[in-house]
Amino acid sequence: MLGNHDETRLASRLDPHGARLAAMLLLTLRGTPTLYYGDEIGMTDVPISHEEQQDPWGKRVPGLGRDPYRTPMQWDDSIHAGCSPPATKKTWLPLGESYQTVNVNSQLQDPKSLLTLYRKLLAHRKSSPSLQVGDYSPVDGLPLDCFAYLRQEEGFSSYLVVLNFSPENMLLNLEKFGTGKIILSTHLDRDEPINLNRLIIQGGEGVLIELHS
After folding, report:
1. Sign of the C-alpha dihedral, residues 96, 100, 102, 103?
2. How far apart are CA 144 and CA 172, in angstroms?
3. What is the DSSP letter of 173?
C-alpha cells in the first residue's frame, strides 16, 4: 500500500505526475495492492479546525490529528459530495473544497482522469497472470531517476514497467528486451508499438509495455 488512514494523502505528498506514477507502481508490483479510498481520484488533505476534530489523538495533541486524511468520499458535486443524504445537517468531517471538481462522477466522464488510469491499470492486472502472480525482476543500469522492472509468468505475456521520476524526458536503450507495445501510459496518451533500443519516456511518465515473445 502507498496510502492509508494514518498518513497524509498521496495527492498531498506528490505532484499530479507523481500520483499517477504511484498508481502504476502499486498496481504492477507483486503482492496484493491496497487502495485507500479517494486516492484513485486524487483527494487531498483537508484542513480541520480544532473544534471539528473527531480523532482522539488530534484532540489530545493539537496538530497531530489524522482527520485531514479521513474526510468524506467525493462521489459527485452535489451537497455533501453524495456521501451523505442531502437532508444531513452536517457530515462527520467537513468536505474538501475541491469536491465539486475532484469527484468520481466527473472523472468517470474524463478519458484522461486519474480515475480512468486506475480503472485501466486494474483491468490489465485482472486480465494478466504475469501482473497478478508473475516473477519480478528489476532492470539495472538505468539513470538514477528511472525505475524499471519485468513481470513474467511462464506461458503468458510478459510486461516491462518503466517509471520516470524526473521532470525531464529520457532516452533509454533497453534493446535486450527486443520489441513490444506500450499498452498504457500514465499520461493516457500513448498506445503504440516500440523498438526498445530507443525508448523515449516523457518527464513524470510511466509506461506499461507488453513484450513481444
Report:
1. positive
2. 12
3. -
pLDDT at 213 over 80: no
Q: Which pTM was predicted?
A: 0.94
Give the domain extent around 68: 10-120
Instruction: Give DSSP secondary structure letters for 1-56.
Output: ----TTS--HHHHS-HHHHHHHHHHHHHSSS---PPTTGGGT-------GGG---H
Cell, residue 31: 503482492
**Same domain for 142 and 116:** no
pLDDT of 126-177, one tens digit each?
999 999 999 999 999 999 999 999 999 999 999 999 999 999 999 999 999 9
For residue 63, the model assigns a pLDDT of 84
Let me know whether 114 and 142 are in one domain: no
Backbone angles phi, psi at 64, to 5 degrees: -110, 10
Same domain, 21 and 114: yes
The number of folded domains in the chain is: 2
